[in-house]
Write a structure and sequence with these properties.
- The chain is of the alpha/beta class and about 425 residues long.
- The protein has two domains: about 1-330, 3-Layer(aba) Sandwich (Rossmann fold), CATH 3.40.50; about 330-430, GMP Synthetase, Chain A, domain 3 (2-Layer Sandwich), CATH 3.30.300.30.
- Helix content is about 30%, strand content about 25%.
- The chain has an eight-stranded mixed β-sheet, with helices on both faces. Strands 18-17-16-19 form a four-stranded mixed β-sheet. Strands 10-11-12 form a three-stranded antiparallel β-sheet.
- Strand 17 (about 370-380), helix 11 and strand 18 (about 410-415) form a beta-alpha-beta unit.
- The termini are far apart.
- The structure holds adenosine-5'-diphosphate and zinc ion (ZN).
- The site of adenosine-5'-diphosphate has 19 residues, from strand 7 and strand 12.
- Zinc ion binds near residues 313, 315 and 317.
Length: about 425
């Protein structure tokens, strides 16, 4: 296979060259950070009163971590390093885990961000002949405008369709010959189910690729979308604190996500001890933004669980690859003392062919115990007069789940289209337990 690079010099730079670049950019980031109310105090307390204190990349570890809590405390301008007149845009996080946080950009920040998104899209083999339908929420969420700008930078025809309204999405795909889409994995699964319902066949479409991200999903979910739609699906990772999309992205090898290390420094730490994890992980990903002046953010604890692969990638890029993100540290459920990530359940059910594309996890209190219920959709063939078919399938799903997660769940089967649908990030877990327990 031949690989194409948007920025060949930077994408295949030697590790030494990359580290020299990172050191220079880290000093710039510290210089900007010292101009913000938050870091002026925090960095000085840590003995870093000038960028000159950063002598080597190892000095990064002298910088204290920044948390989501810090960003919320600093709202609205605690992290702003430039005069307000120079700010040209703001974005906010989705607020999945609480109050959203705000990020500001100047003109050059936006250009640099766009460069990283363009590089990511190009790494999947797209070019200016592609027609790109951006099926994700526009607005404060970074996924809309971020991908939009990156697609235009490459020269693709970008259709700003936004999320939702599958009938309209299909019409746009057919009218303009869409070849690439961007969506959350849960929306892509929904699109596939709707296609069958509305009689849209693969042959009516020119679709070849999808970028799927903004929420965790398993390798089995990727395979399912790829097989059902006969397309290539690439994992896209980003967060508003680090601009948005274009932080880490899969290349055509689909073997981990290249973290664009000229824009972001990645570390993996143990979330309990806060010490670096040897051999790259797994652990919590910590990111330092090297490419934004208006809102510098240093050593941000993402709470996302990942790690680094060892060794080079066949595509020739020298930027290290992250594992597929398993979830956030705060997604973890404790069910009768057993730790469980929702992604573990998804992995099992998405690998079972009989199970449909949608599911919901419900946790309740039953007396003193926790009760886990997994609701999944199944096709009409299962709902016959003979309840044995239904019960046998239920039992098989329950047993497979129990073998994998070591918790005995209750399984409920629902008709297709009856579980809630999410156009943005899916909310798969409904934890009904009282909060103080
Ligand atoms: P919020 O943190 O409120 O959801 P963002 O919109 O900035 O706000 O979303 C960023 C978060 O989305 C990441 O920190 C991560 O938890 C999740 N995310 C984004 N892309 C992926 C991906 N490809 N795989 C897993 N999780 C992802
Ligand atoms: Zn690669």
């Amino acid at each position: 296979m031949t690989y194409q690079y948007w920025n060949p010099g930077m994408e295949t730079i030697s590790r030494r060259g990359l580290e020299a670049w990172q050191l220079e950019k880290l000093r710039c980031a510290v210089r900007h950070a010292l101009r913000t109310p938050f870091y002026a105090k925090r960095l000085k307390e840590a003995g870093i009163d000038s960028p000159e204190r950063i002598k080597t990349l190892d000095d990064l570890r002298r910088i204290p971590f920044t948390t989501k809590h810090d960003l919320r405390e600093g709202f609205p301008y605690g992290f702003l390093s430039i005069p307000k007149e120079q700010v040209v845009r703001l974005h906010a996080s989705s607020g999945t885990t609480g109050a959203p946080t705000t990020i500001y950009f100047n003109k050059e920040d936006l250009m640099r961000w766009t460069g990283f998104v363009a590089r990511s899209i190009y790494a999947t083999g797209c070019n200016r002949t592609d027609v790109f339908q951006n099926m994700i929420t526009y607005g404060l969420f970074t996924g809309g405008l971020g991908f939009h700008a990156g697609g235009e930078e490459i020269g693709m025809l970008v259709i700003p369709s936004g999320a939702g309204n599958t009938t309209r999405q299909f019409r746009l795909m057919q009218d303009f010959g869409t070849t690439v889409v961007h969506a959350t994995p849960s929306f892509l699964l929904h699109v596939e189910a709707k296609m069958r319902e509305e009689g849209v066949t693969r042959e009516n479409l020119k679709l070849r690729k999808a970028f799927a991200g903004a929420e965790p999903y398993s390798e089995d979910t990727r395979k399912r979308i790829e097989e059902l739609l006969a397309i290539d699906v690439y994992n896209s990772y980003g967060l508003s604190e680090m601009n948005g999309p274009g932080v880490a992205f899969e290349c055509q090898c689909k073997n981990g996500l290249h973290l664009w290390e000229d824009g972001y420094i990645g570390e993996i730490i143990n979330p309990e001890t806060l010490e670096p994890v040897r051999e790259g992980g797994p652990g919590e990903l910590v990111l330092t933004c090297l490419c934004r002046e208006a809102t510098p953010i240093l050593r941000y604890r993402t709470r996302d669980l990942s790690g680094f692969y060892n060794g080079p990638c066949a595509c020739g890029r020298t930027h290290r690859r992250l594992y597929r993100i398993k979830g956030r540290t705060d997604d973890m459920l404790i069910i009768n003392g057993v730790n469980l990530f929702p992604s573990q359940i998804e992995e099992v059910i998405m690998s079972m062919k009989e199970v449909g594309n949608n599911y919901l996890i419900v946790v309740e209190k039953e007396g003193a115990l926790d009760r886990l219920t997994v609701q999944t959709e199944v096709g009409p063939a299962v709902f016959t007069d003979d309840s044995r078919v239904l019960n046998a399938l239920k039992e098989r799903i329950r047993k497979t789940l129990q073998a994998s997660i070591t918790i005995n769940p209750k399984v409920e089967l629902h008709e297709r289209g009856s579980l809630p649908i999410f156009e943005g990030k899916a909310k798969r877990v409904h934890d009904k337990r009282p909060k103080d327990v």
